[in-house]
Amino acid sequence: MNSFGKNLALWIIIGLLLVALFNLFQSSGTRGTQSTIAYSQFLSEVEAGRVADVTIQGEQITGHFTGGGQSFSTYSPPNDPDLIERLTAADVRVTAAPEERSMPGLLSILVSWFPMLLLIAVWIFFMRQMQ
Asked: What is the pLDDT of residues 94-118, one digit of tens each?
């Protein structure tokens, strides 16, 4: 294997390690202290008056309990017609949000890191030309 191939392989490995490290820290920072609860437990908490607010995003429901403000998340079954009525009857503040459409994992990484990888490739090209 020639010198250029070895250098290119080394830079690709370094780039992939940097991407993996970035994603590791990014995902650990967004987790927080949110607990996942069953939908039946969520309905029980609503009826007991222990839910302060919820955000409904498609089938995903996130919200906060009263008092301590601990957050939770759950998924609702599709087409639950009584959910909004139950929430408003229990004085829960309801916020609706559109579903998030995201790209698949690897494609998302490539799109977000493409400009940086392009700059690194141009830098390597110029460094090779200077030698």
From this structure: 998 887 776 677 777 777 788 888 8
Does the predicted TM-score (pTM) go above 0.70? no
- Within 8 A by CB and 6+ apart from 60, the residues are 73, 74, 75, 76
**What H or E segment, with its residue span, contains residue 62?**
strand 60-65
CB neighbour list of residue 124: distance below 8 Å, 6 or more residues apart: 7, 8, 11
Sheet hosting strand 93-97, strand order edge to edge:
35-36, 71-75, 60-65, 51-57, 93-97
Single-letter amino acid, residue 61: I
Residue 130 has which token pair? 């200077």
Residue with tokens 């020639």: 2
d(CA 63, CA 84): 14
